[in-house]
Amino acid sequence: MKIVNVTHGSFYAIGAYAAASMTAAWLARGYPPMLSYAVLVLAAVVIAAPFALFIERAILRPLYARDEVVILLVTYALFLILEDVVKLIWGVNPYFIAEPYALLGSFQVAGMAYPTYNLVLVAAALFFGGGLWWLLHSTRAGKLLLAVIHDPEVSRAMGVNVGRYYLATFALGSLLAALAGAFTAPTVSVVPGLGVDVIVLSFAVVVIGGLGSLPGAAIGAVMVGLVRSLSVHYMPQVELFVIYFVMALVLAVRPRGLFSLAEPRKI
Amino acid sequence: MPQWAMFIMTIAFARGLVVLGLLLLLRAGLVSFGQALFYCLGAYSAGALGRFFGVSDIFVEMLVGGAVAAATAFVLGFLLARYRGIYFGLLSLALSMILYGLLVKSEALGSTDGFNILASTLFGIRPGPEWVRYAVLVSAAAVSLVAALLVFRYLRTPLGRLAPAIKDNEIRVEYMGASARRAVHVKYVIAGALAGVGGALAATAVGHIDPEMAYWTTSGEFIFIAILAGTGNVIAPFVGALIYGAIHTLAYDLSPNTWQMSLGAALLVLIVFLPEGLWSFFNRYVRHS
């Protein structure tokens, strides 16, 4: 949609908080722990959806005509607001839900224990990435969406309900962020400030990959993850900025990221 | 004047200087999400002067802070002047975060805690403790006035007038025989220098510096002020910074736990209802009446 959305970090945080609190409540009642995964996902989706729909309809919609940068600032403002909303709803104390993480146990890789949950996460990421790719390139709705992004005006003239596509895209993107938060929640302690960390990181990922490119985002994510782990292992003192260093390096060589498409210049 | 009011005003001048530089870039359609880089560089240069050379003269600090920032901006400008739109913003953000990462890990400069700065002196005179705040405030006002006047003059030079043209259509700028890249580079250096001076000023006013000054939320604050003020006038950044300081203090005072929310709401309302900033308000109701 050509929107750089800072609010995405808030959705990640909302997803994580919703999943953590709901799953904790679920387990506290003594319901079967195996179903906690379903609770994890449902909680994130059900709680994040109204936020996403409201923000798109009420706040972003009237502003689409403005500059990309103005939209960025609007989402930044929303991010500041949501950050406090999250604190108001869930408080500032950390949430822990280790059960879904511990439940799957671990297996041995080359003599080291590796948690199965992480493997499930990788599978989930592949599933959602592949699903999104299929949705965009193999379904009618996805192809229409690409057209809408390319030229909203012509699409509208062709009888496409552009507003609905915008709403659906924003909602889908936000729900994915919330899901990501939900999936991560069992592996970390859910604390305020979760969204800030993740949003700057994910900007680095998409900029490295090229804005608007799915394979780019996947490669960027793997690169960022690898570089970060390597630096933690070999040179922990550079861990904080090595990602930005990589990002600056990639942009210096490929000004629009690794997988960017050529863009026409306006004359 | 009560102390807190003087402090808010001094900081407003410091921030106003940074935003003045941001205004130059914004007029060319560039949003730098990394002005905190130069703000922090200026502050740390000022701090290093005191820590390693025992210099505490406020004007020397501002001069050196501005010079270090300008030199850095000159070097980085070769890279950044090629970028536009969101890429310019994100690349400058990455650069400022690199500085943040470096400072956090540098033990010699106090790591995450930063370090304290010597009390300011003025041309070798050490004002008494009750006067030092006045001295800093007056120096800040003087420097800001000079900076505003210089930028005002610059905006009237051919190079300064290129800014809106670059925003509108860069290819046509090139057809005219002007170099958009060079114009952006010059603006970037000026903006960097102003942010460096602002950083040095903030450092002496607060008396303490830490790596948070290079964090991206600091840059976000500056953009907030720029949007609040509008890019129409060289005085606007200072007024905007003052109002921002007031909103911030008020929000913090009224609701210490939800001040971010008030700030975000204020920003949202401004963008929706006053797209050209507070200055457009002034233009609409004062000038034409």
Strand content of chain A: under 5%
What's the structural domain tally of chain A? 2
Q: If interface size is counted as residues with C-beta under 8 Å from the partner's C-beta, which chains form the largest one?
A: A-B, 44 and 44 residues
Distance between the termini of chain B: 34 Å
Distance between the termini of chain A: 23 Å
Number of domains of chain B: 1
Low-confidence segments of chain A, ≥5 residues, pLDDT <50?
Answer: none
Specify the number of helices of chain A. 11
Low-pLDDT stretches of chain B: none
Structural class of chain B: mainly alpha
- What proportion of the residues of chain A is helical, as a percent range? over 70%
Shape of chain B: globular
Rg of chain B (C-alpha, Å): 19 Å
How is the largest sheet of chain B built, in terms of strand order? 1-2
* Main beta sheet strand tally, sense and closure of chain B: 2 strands, antiparallel
Query: What oligomeric arrangement do these chains adopt?
Result: heterodimer
Beta fraction of the residues of chain B? Answer: under 5%
Residue share in helices of chain B?
over 70%
Query: How much is the average pLDDT of chain B?
Result: 83
Number of strands of chain B: 2
Rough outline of chain A: globular
Structure explained in plain terms:
The complex is a heterodimer of chains A (267) and B (289). Chain A folds into 2 domains: 8-192, no CATH class; 193-260. Helices cover 71% and strands 3% of the residues of chain A. Chain A has 11 helices and 2 strands; from the N terminus they run H-H-H-H-E-E-H-H-H-H-H-H-H. In chain A, strand 1 (106-109) and strand 2 (112-115) form a beta hairpin. Chain A is globular, with a radius of gyration of 20 Å. The model of chain A has no long low-confidence stretch (mean pLDDT 81). Chain B is mostly helical and 289 residues long. Chain B has helices at 3-27, 35-53, 58-80, 85-105, 132-155, 158-168, 170-175, 180-206, 216-229, 236-254, 259-273, 278-287, and strands at residues 115-116, 208-209. In chain B, strands 1-2 form a two-stranded antiparallel sheet. The two termini of chain B are 34 Å apart.
